[in-house]
Specification:
The protein has 138 residues and is mainly α. The chain has helices spanning 2-18, 22-25, 28-37, 47-72, 81-101, 106-137. It is elongated and about 55 Å long.
Length: 138
């Protein structure tokens, strides 16, 4: 049961990060509309800003792929689960600090922060399940 829950959490995290892959290829006008829907002001197109957004999108998509790999075979990658949980916790703290500092509106700030902190805590709490499953497979 714990392994199923861990797979579900890892899968949700993979989707949450992996959705950023859209930012690699979507036209700038579409990205600007999406940013606006998430609370940003309309962005003036700047080639360097577009480059950074697409670069960040690629990095986030890679993080999503990493979590997808863990979701597919958490027992095989049991040693990486604490690292993944710690990563999410640290990212959640960064989001919390800067979200409060910048006085961001609740959406999507609360959702992002809660997903990282909650996902990280859950992975750290459940990682013993993958260790037990890995020992059973050996």
């Amino acid at each position: 049961m714990a392994l199923r829950i861990m797979r579900m959490i890892l899968g949700l995290v993979a989707i949450s990060w992996g959705i950023a892959a859209l930012g690699i290829a979507l036209p700038w006008d579409t990205l600007d509309t999406l940013f606006h829907n998430f609370g940003a002001r309309t962005l003036t197109h700047d080639p360097m800003l577009e480059y950074w957004i697409r670069m960040a999108s690629g990095a986030y998509a890679a993080i999503g792929a990493f979590f997808a790999m863990l979701a597919i075979r958490p027992e095989r990658y049991a040693a990486l689960i604490p690292f993944a949980g710690t990563f999410l916790l640290l990212e959640g703290l960064v989001l919390l600090y800067h979200g409060v500092l910048l006085r961001l509106a609740p959406w999507p700030f609360y959702a992002d922060t809660t997903a990282c902190l909650g996902g990280g805590l859950a992975l750290l709490a459940l990682h013993h399940a993958t260790r037990t499953a890995a020992r059973t497979d050996s």
